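Weekly modeling sync, notes
Attendees: S.R. (lead), two postdocs, one rotation student

Agenda item 3: backlog of single-chain predictions. S.R. asked that every request posted to the team notebook include the full sequence so nobody has to chase files. The rotation student volunteered to paste the first one in as an example of the format we agreed on. Action items at the bottom.

Example entry:
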Amino acid sequence: MAYSSDIYRIVESKLANIRNKKQIEATKKRDDFLRKFPEAQKIETEISKFAIKIAKNIILGKDFSEKIDELKKKNLSLQNKLKNLERKFSPQKDFFEVNFQCKACKDTGYVSGSMCECMRLMLKKEVYEKLNKFSPISLCSFDTFSLSFYSDKSFEENKNSSPKKRMKKIFYFCKNYADKFSVKSENLLFQGATGLGKTHLSLAIAKKVIEVGFNVIYGSAQSLVLNLEKEKFSYFKEETQNFLKYFTECDLLILDDLGVEFPSTFSNFAIYNLIDTRLMFSKPTIISTNLSMLELEKKYSERLVSRILGEYVSVDFFGEDIRQQKRRKKDLEIIANQKKLTINFIGSK
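Predicted structure, as returned to the notebook:
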């Protein structure tokens, strides 16, 4: 997958910071050891001196074969003393070694000139984080979803059910979907009027799936189309991301508010191409929309609706607009506070 230069710079900087941090940690361990055992510093100095003596003899061409056994014995003796002191400080064998996050590349990002797998994963993660930067994923979770906004009043066509009962089933269905998510999970179509919790539950799924390590892209249909349009018509191709590749290859794509994007030949083609490509690669997608199947067919095409009907599990949301309920509740609280202030003011006269 191709990445822009700024993504490479960010990841290389992060790797350098990780490497530097690990080296500082190792240096601190060594400094703590030398403070506790000051004689270790003397031993290390003596070992260095032996190395210099041997090197000088080699450079000067002197025959030091007679001394080699003696030098070896003294050097080995000093090394054993040093190891004994190190073991007293910590019995852990590799305690003083730099504990790199990636043992393969030692946090450089490369192994024998080739990119390390750890760097590939970091590049991919950086792209997904950048694409989700302005999405409200962190704001919604299953814990903050409330069924109190849904009515207990039974449906006229079904006396044994109500919006609250239906939404309770949908809530646990979505939670189970997130808990058991895999790259083989089903595609979901969330349908219903505005303000019924479609976005909240899709974001809750996204948050949970990201937490367990999957790559997720969340965005409105409008924002995804704008990114694809920017990529296609940009004069500076090297500075744009390969958005279509990211959107089609991520583990889970959440396409929110399908149908609210500005209609155009390009947007209709882009939406169909995106949905169709993910179906071909068997990549799970969650679509939320306020439109009915008939409205989707009018806006896009019978071919798109046919693909969705055949490949998506339909989840119908019920109830009264939660945003309006919250607004009414807030208005009532303001009115109540105003009345309370008026009463207090009159009573103070």
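Discussion: group reviewed the output briefly. The domain at 132-324 is CATH 3.40.50.300 (Rossmann fold).
Action items: rotation student to repeat for the remaining queue; S.R. to check formatting next week.
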